[in-house]
Design brief:
Blueprint (H helix, E strand, L loop, with lengths): L1 H22 L3 H5 L7 E6 L6 H5 L6 E6 L9 H13 L4 E7 L3 H7 L7 H4 L1 H9 L1 H5 L3 H22 L1 H10 L3 E7 L6 E5 L5 H8 L7
Parallel strand pairs: 1-2, 1-3, 3-4
Antiparallel strand pairs: 4-5
Bound molecules: cobalt (II) ion.
Cobalt (II) ion (CO) binds next to helix 5.
């Protein structure tokens, strides 16, 4: 059965190629010439979150990095390389950090159950919980979960603004703009949480969230 499923995927690919060529003969030849995406996407690995589908973007428009719980890590060479290449070489105009409600990574960080190596990866979300404890403590568990998803996105936006990669590019060009979004798996709608943080002053405005803690 699993083998049939994989065969089906390969068949789907064959069909897709034929369909695209029928619509546009040079579709693949043009793609092979290069890419000029304007957006770097940092999203969750969750299989229900499909950036192209939800934003109506196509091939060549979005440079994508996904990891569990869409985290900005200062020690992840994979992420940092993607960021540096996107900002300095591709010169993307926007970075979108997109979290999502019902995120398993965020849920795991809220609890004490151990899942192995992943516990270390999602550890920064526990710090976010600590930073915003005053706000989160007033909410019931369901609302806490939703709000923590949002707060973690805002934290990642701030983290991006603290990278030397982004700061150096801001000094040169006032780009990229950074946006924090949350995607609602249950409705399909995206909510914009923060946006256009392309200067030091605006970064400080984002970080005012941190000052809410008493
Ligand atoms: Co997730």
């Amino acid at each position: 059965m699993p083998q049939n499923y994989i065969s089906q995927l390969l068949n789907n690919n064959q069909n897709w190629v034929q369909e695209q060529i029928a619509i546009d003969e040079d579709y693949f030849e043009r793609a092979a010439l290069g890419q000029e995406p304007q957006i770097l996407w940092l999203g969750c690995s969750d299989s229900r979150v499909n950036p192209s589908e939800m934003t109506g973007t196509g091939k060549g428009e979005v440079f994508v990095h996904r990891n569990i719980a869409n985290l900005v890590s200062y020690t992840d060479f994979n992420f940092l390389s993607v960021l540096q290449y996107a900002v300095e070489v591709l010169k993307v105009k926007h970075i979108i950090v997109c979290g999502h409600y019902e995120c398993g990574g965020v849920k795991a960080a809220m609890g004490e159950h151990q899942y192995g190596l992943i516990d270390n990866w999602i550890r920064p979300i526990k710090d976010t919980m600590r930073f915003y404890a005053n706000e989160l403590d007033d909410l019931d568990e369901k609302e806490q979960f939703k709000r923590l998803v949002e707060l973690s996105v805002i934290e990642q936006v701030a983290h991006l603004g603290y990278t030397n990669i982004v700061r150096n590019q801001w000094a040169k060009s006032q780009m990229p703009h950074i946006h924090g979004w949350v995607y609602d798996i249950g409705t399909g709608y995206v909510k914009s949480l923060v946006s256009m943080i392309n200067t030091e002053a605006e970064l400080k405005a984002v970080c005012k969230f941190e000052q809410l803690k008493k």
